[in-house]
Amino acid sequence: MRSIRTNRDYQEHIRALRDQTLSAMGVFKELGVKDPEDGLPLLARNIEKAAGITGKTESRKFFISRERNLWLSLVLLLGCYSAVLLPAFLDQEQVTWNDGSSQKRDMVLLNRSAAVLSQACRRGWCGERLRATALCPSLPGVRAFLQEAHAPWSHPPPLGLQGSEDRAERALRALPRTGPPPGLEGRACSRCVVVGSGGVLHARGLGAHIDKYDIIIRLNNAPVFGFERDAGSRTTIRLMYPEAAPRSYREYRNTSLVVLVVFKGLDLDWLASVVSKERLDWWSKLWFWRKVVESIPLQPENFRILNPEIIQQTGLALQAYSKQPRQTMPTLGASAVVMALQLCDEVSLAGFGYDLAHPDAPLHYYESLHMDAMRSQVVHDVGVEKLFLRELVTAQVVTDLTGAL
């Protein structure tokens, strides 16, 4: 009887071992099956089946806590903002464009500039050439800087001051001086160079020659710092409107005059606030299309206002070359050339001339914009301006140092 029981227990024990073995084999066989969605073996599922666990514990270990999730989100958000905003504060890589010209051409430009500087200054040269060639007969005799606010203006800004006379009067009262720059006082003959922002100035090495001129005129926020080799380091006159004023204080070093170009009456209020160190109210600031600087590190005697008649006369001069019946709005560069013709005996140009035939050429000497960006603007007719400036060069009224006209 005892032996029968022992035999039965042994058989039941064998069956139990067999069942456990078959169950284990089924589990390991299922381990090789792949999920149809991602193609990976269902390891986690089978291990859970074999171990008899639900997976809730593992899911809790996989997900991080709410506090850690918040900190991780903040770190990722700051990282994304840094990746987007940080490049704007770094120096942009300069685009070098090669149009197939050789070093010999650059030497020709340098020799041309050296020849202008080596000869004696010719007093009254620009005015004489303008009268001799009948180009722009109304240009000689126009004052470069505003001295009278309540003149009989026939146009609103930028061609006049109609409707903004009181604002102009307040701005003029804030300026101790309204005449020519100090560099022209007591000088028998003066040479000017108008430094344009064109990419043709890049890698020409004219900086040392530009610094030798008596009057150096620059436009808007075209930088000097970091570009001294090509653009020079001195600034006698910087023509600009509020939204285009340089933001870096270092760009105002070695600067004699900041000259406001009035495009709207509010620009005069801005100048008065900068000179008097009194900030504009928040309502006035809303009407600028871009945030403007609130202070400039210069003394009140270092500010002037461009006579709007300069822009008007420039537009009239361009109209002779335009096929459109309406008056062409000149660029600040063309207006600066006309202003220089009123101030100086000799005028040279550097960095002028848009070459729209090469869309990949650099538009400006200081940034990576390409020439094809000019095709999208509709305010100025740069083709007409090129004809006007080219005729001034042909008539020997001005000298083109960079040879793009």
From TrEMBL:
Q: What class of enzyme is it?
A: transferase
Q: Which residues form a coiled coil?
A: none
* Chemical reaction(s) catalysed: ganglioside GA1 (d18:1(4E)/18:0) + CMP-N-acetyl-beta-neuraminate = ganglioside GM1 (d18:1(4E)/18:0) + CMP + H(+); ganglioside GA2 (d18:1(4E)/18:0) + CMP-N-acetyl-beta-neuraminate = ganglioside GM2 (d18:1(4E)/18:0) + CMP + H(+); a beta-D-Gal-(1<->1')-ceramide + CMP-N-acetyl-beta-neuraminate = N-acetyl-alpha-neuraminosyl-(2->3)-beta-D-galactosyl-(1<->1')-ceramide + CMP + H(+); a beta-D-Gal-(1->4)-beta-D-Glc-(1<->1)-Cer(d18:1(4E)) + CMP-N-acetyl-beta-neuraminate = a ganglioside GM3 (d18:1(4E)) + CMP + H(+)
Which Enzyme Commission number(s) are on file for it? Answer: 2.4.3.9
Q: Per its record, what are the GO molecular function terms? A: lactosylceramide alpha-2,3-sialyltransferase activity
Is this entry keyworded Glycosyltransferase?
A: yes
Membrane topology (UniProt):
Single-pass type II membrane protein
Looking at the UniProt entry, the stretches that span the membrane are 70-90
GO BP? lipid metabolic process
User: What GO terms fall under cellular component here?
Assistant: Golgi membrane
Source domain of life is Eukaryota
Is Protein transport found in the keyword set?
no
Q: Where in the cell is it found?
A: Golgi apparatus membrane
Q: Which PANTHER family match?
A: SIALYLTRANSFERASE, ST3 BETA-GALACTOSIDE ALPHA-2,3-SIALYLTRANSFERASE 5, LIKE
The protein's name is Lactosylceramide alpha-2,3-sialyltransferase
Lineage of origin: Eukaryota, Metazoa, Chordata, Craniata, Vertebrata
